[in-house]
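Whether sequence alone determines local backbone shape is best considered at the level of individual chains. Part of our work consisted of pairing the sequence of a single chain with a tokenised description of its backbone. This step matters because it turns folding into a mapping between discrete strings. For completeness, the protein is quoted in full, as a sequence line and a line of structure tokens:

_____
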Amino acid sequence: MKNEQSSTKEIWEKVKYLFGVVFFGFLYGIGFLAFFGMLLQWTLGIDISESDNIYRLLFIFWGVCTLGWHLRLKDQEKKREVDSKPMSNLEKSEPDKNYMEYKKRFEVMTDGQLKDVLNREVGNNGWTSSRASYLVALREEFEKRKIILIDKKK
């Protein structure tokens, strides 16, 4: 019973979507046709209302606008899916390459060189993911060597 209701609901959702796309495609098609007609009248002096091919133009614009409306709605749906996904997979990702490179570089430095590296970072307001990796690797090296960092302002 529930499967029948859910399949019926899905069918009606698809029908509603199809009619919406066709309707808005038709409205946009007429709008573009009117715009195109005015543009031709203004630039070339051609009156498309006297043309025998007005119906062909209407169907072409209708088809193009229906397709455009469909693609627009699908794009919005994809954006909603991406925005609704949790970001927990970021915590499980492997450390980035920069972090590993910085970690290796700091391991071979002396304590004095590490302190000089830290002092160069003081007052630097810029922030990027690469700088974050750099500072995390630097802090971990200080912790590994049990070097205590004291804030002299306190």
